[in-house]
Amino acid sequence: MRGWAKGFFREAIFSPGSPEAEEAAPRESAFLWRALRLRPGSPVLDICCGTGRHALRLARRGALVTGVDATPEYLARARRSARGLRRLTLELADMRQLPYISAFDAAYNVWTSFGYFRKPADDLRALRAAAGALRPGGLFVIDVVDGDWLRKRWAVSPRHWVELAGGGYRLEQASLRGGADPAQWCEWTVLPPRGQPRRARFFLRLYNEARLRSLLRRAGFDVLKRFHSLGGAPSGRRLVLLSRLRRS
């Protein structure tokens, strides 16, 4: 990782294994099992697996899970949690260059692990890499924060305070870019219960349903269904699309 990404994707700033993320993981993993039509022995790819909270649960249920991530710190925590679990493989990899060809029945990319590349072409590369890792007819779930909702949120106020489940607070400040390629730059200031404040910035391309559907089609997917959360309940904040890779 380079630039801002190296400073943002670390446990002290953004932890995919936070208490609130772990609390939601059982419900979300059950949703992924149903939506991707998994069963014991199904080979499934977790793209940007983070600390492995979904991959671990699916593997314990019997799926053959491969998790990839570009952050060594997250993978180290996932490997500690996965000791003795033979149905889970964890690899360091760039989502744009996945080292798999037609190896999986299903794949998923969740919790807004998509849209961080400055060049739009890299987002398409990432989806095409996911398509290349799937067998024809394979299912794919992608989950991001709905870009339309984010624009409305920041239009109301460019500053938001978030109370952290583990104690402390986070100040989020954003600036929006409109036009044909809407995106945001966001700065987080994390105020832990003890110690000094920590700051980091990140870039996120904003996708609404129409834009994400179009990109998935270009990558070789047909969108089957939209959900509003990984748990299936309507929330309005999330954009969850279930797609199928076209058969040649």
Could you please describe the fold and organization of this structure?
With 248 residues, this protein is of the alpha/beta class. The protein folds into two domains: 4-145 and 207-245, Rossmann fold (3-Layer(aba) Sandwich); 149-204. 31% of the residues lie in helices and 32% in strands. The chain contains seven helices and eleven strands. Helix 2 packs across helix 3 and helix 5 packs across helix 7. It starts with a helix and ends with a strand.
Chart the SSEs and their pairings.
Layout: H1 4-8, H2 19-35, E1 43-47, H3 53-61, E2 64-69, H4 72-81, E3 88-92, E4 104-109, H5 120-133, E5 134-145, H6 147-156, E6 159-163, E7 169-177, E8 183-191, E9 198-205, H7 209-219, E10 221-227, E11 238-245
Parallel strand pairs: 1-2, 1-4, 2-3, 4-5
Antiparallel strand pairs: 5-11, 6-7, 7-8, 8-9, 10-11
Helix pairs in contact: 2-3, 5-7
